[in-house]
Amino acid sequence: MITSTLSLVASAQNKITNPFGLVYENAITKNISGEVNIHPVTYKLNGIEIAANVYTPANYDPSKHYPAVVVAHPNGGVKEQVAGLYAQRLAESGYIAIAADAAYQGASGGQPRNVDKPAFRIEDIRGMADYICKYKGVDASRLGLLGICGGGGYALKAAQTDKRFQAVATLSMFNSGVVRRNGYMNSGVSTIQQRLQQATEARAQEAAGGKVLYAADTEITDEMADKMPFDLYREGHYYYNRTHAHPNSTFRYTMSSLLDLVEFDAATNMDLINQLIPGATHIQTYYVPEYVGQAMNKLNEFFGKNLQQKVHLN
């Protein structure tokens, strides 16, 4: 594992040169007529300005009707990383897709920064649906939802009640509530009460006008990452901090968010899903072309069947 992670670092993107801030392979660098295009947009959600990217298919014609897909990013991720990759690939397959930074995160507004409450993340998904359903050319009756990692758990919850979503898919789904409560693979069960006490004190301090405290706010070195027992966190460090780093992406979240996270569960009795594709680890589904290709084949088959991908004319 150390050899493979070091090879990733060797090809790391030390500086973002993409004009749209995108950090994934084969990202759009400019909008060309007749090809897939990207459209940075902003909109208000409950008084907070949300930053999003809309991807339109090749030869996009606003007079036609296209199926659309909302893409929810991972915990700590931003729209310029894996969410953008899959949104672009979906647009290449004929969908209009939207990827937005969660409220309080990324380039979106909201204070304090990096609040990570499940109710907010679910509302972010609904907000993307609000926006994209009004976008020119979108057939709102053919709306799909793709959630990645933590966004997968929130996508399942959003789809349970918001019936605009005709189809929902997840990639490397991460049940944030269960993991924040028990720790990954139940590694933190013994510290639940201690962490809840810390979160309680952090909220009280915020309410009193004091300093906002954060969890997962430690800077991780490559050496520390190589010693991590779980590939999700070990490879996650290299993905988010080295090969696909973005200044708006961070693992940290407000300590007080834990009060909401520990009582959340994406679905009753749902086990934590670690892999979607045989042979691929969680993080590898974010960028490895072979695994992204396999995932897109599944997503195209799934969304094509359930959203009737054929483009309709007015």
Would you give an account of this structure?
By secondary structure, the protein is α/β, with parallel strands linked by helices. It has a single domain, classed as Alpha/Beta hydrolase fold, catalytic domain (Rossmann fold, 3-Layer(aba) Sandwich), CATH 3.40.50.1820. 35% of the residues lie in helices and 18% in strands. It contains 10 helices and 9 strands. It has helices at residues 2-10, 82-92, 118-133, 150-161, 176-182, 192-207, 222-226, 231-243, 258-261, 289-306; strands at 37-45, 48-56, 64-72, 96-100, 138-148, 165-171, 214-215, 253-254, 312-313. Strands 1, 2, 3, 4, 5, 6 and 9 form a 7-stranded mixed sheet that branches. A two-stranded antiparallel sheet has the order 7-8. Strand 1 (37-45) and strand 2 form a beta hairpin. Helix 3 packs across helix 4. The longest helix is centred in the last third of the chain and has 18 residues, at 289-306. It is globular. The protein starts with a helix and ends with a strand. Mean pLDDT is 91; it is low at 1-13 and 269-275.
Rg, rounded, reads 19 Å
What integer is the average pLDDT?
A: 91
| Count of all domains | 1
Give the proportion of residues in helices.
25-40%
**Amount of beta strand:** 15-25%
Termini Cα gap: 53 Å
Shape: globular
Q: What is the CATH domain class?
A: Alpha Beta
Number of helices: 10
Largest sheet: 7 strands, mixed
CATH superfamily: Alpha/Beta hydrolase fold, catalytic domain
Name of the CATH architecture: 3-Layer(aba) Sandwich
β-strand number: 9
- Derived from helix and strand composition plus strand pairing, the structural class reads alpha/beta
Helix/strand order, N-terminal first: HEEEHEHEHEHHEHHEHHE
State the low-pLDDT regions, or none.
1-13, 269-275
